[in-house]
Amino acid sequence: MVELQHPSSTDPGDGLAAVVALRRFTERLEAAEVERAMREGWSWPEVAEALGVTRQAVHKKHAKRLIATGVQLRRRDH
Amino acid sequence: MFNRFVKQARDIAAQAQSIACGLGSPTVEAEHLLLALSEAQATVAHKALAEAGLDWHGMREALAGENERSLAAVGISIAAFDLPPVAGADARPQWATSAKVALERSLTVAAARNDSRIESDHILLGILQARLGTVPRALEVAGIDRLAFARRVEAELDRAG
Question: Three-class SS of residue B15?
Fold first, then answer.
């Protein structure tokens, strides 16, 4: 389990850089987890609901990449 | 903005965008410009970066080190996650502020040097002006004195010009 701790450094620059790094991390984690869900046969509406975003948003963000990487998407949900 | 950029400098911008896309980044950041410069053969920027150990590989390591260090500050160990690399993101990544600012600064740098055209070396100097953010932190991780490095690039440019 990830346990967040307050930056031990007193430099706000380190804390702000952590925010930037976390944004990058979130993007990567989202890409990996959406891909995993779709590989396991989840539908776009399911992934969207789990992420709390619209189906259009998740499709727009990930569909092209997943198709390019050869993930078999559930046909009726395209 | 790009009309005063020579073709090679415009190519750097285009290359930065495709690098960002290849790395799965939804945005083009200053570090992607720097990675593009590290690959641009036959430029003062490329030579200076290579001499500082910042070829493509060196730059990627410095950026990974910066990322690791920044996450460690909030107690996250990136090594604890087995994240696969993101293969080719969707649409063309959008230009983020860090990259836009670096390009704007390349214009200012060129103006201060009385250079009428913007070359890729000006882009490097523009990037190096940032005091805060991912790039200066990555340079610090790589053990590079940002200002001294910028002065060296300027001196090289003076000699080449």
Answer: helix
Cβ pair B31, B103 in contact under 8 A: no
At B155 the three-state DSSP class reads: helix
Q: Are A22 and B80 a contacting pair at CB < 8 A? A: no
pTM, to two decimals: 0.88
Number of other residues whose CB lies within 10 A of the CB of residue B46: 19
Query: What's at B160, amino acid-wise?
Result: A
Tens digit of each residue's pLDDT (9 = 90 or more) over A21-41: 999 999 889 989 999 999 999
- A25 in contact with B, Cβ within 8 Å: yes
Taking one residue from A and the other from B, the number of pairs with CB-CB distance under 8 angstroms is: 79
Distance of residue A23 Cα from the nearest chain B Cα, in angstroms: 10
CA distance B161 to B157: 6
Token pair for residue A29?
């984690």
Indicate if the pLDDT at residue B66 is higher than 60.
yes
Place of tokens 């036959």: B42
Residue type, A49: E
In terms of C-beta density within 10 A (0-12 exposed, 13-18 middle, 19 or more buried), how is residue B80 classed?
exposed
ipTM comes to 0.87
Distance in Å, alpha carbon of B83 to nearest chain A alpha carbon: 7
Q: For residue B112, give every residue at least 6 positions away whose Cβ sits within 8 Å of its Cβ, in sequence order, or none.
A: none
Closest Cβ opposite residue B73 in set A3, A15, A28 = A15
Taking the Cβ of residue B79 and every Cβ of chain A, the question of whether any pair is shorter than 8 Å is answered with: no
List, for residues B29-46, the tens digit of each pLDDT value. 999 999 999 998 888 999
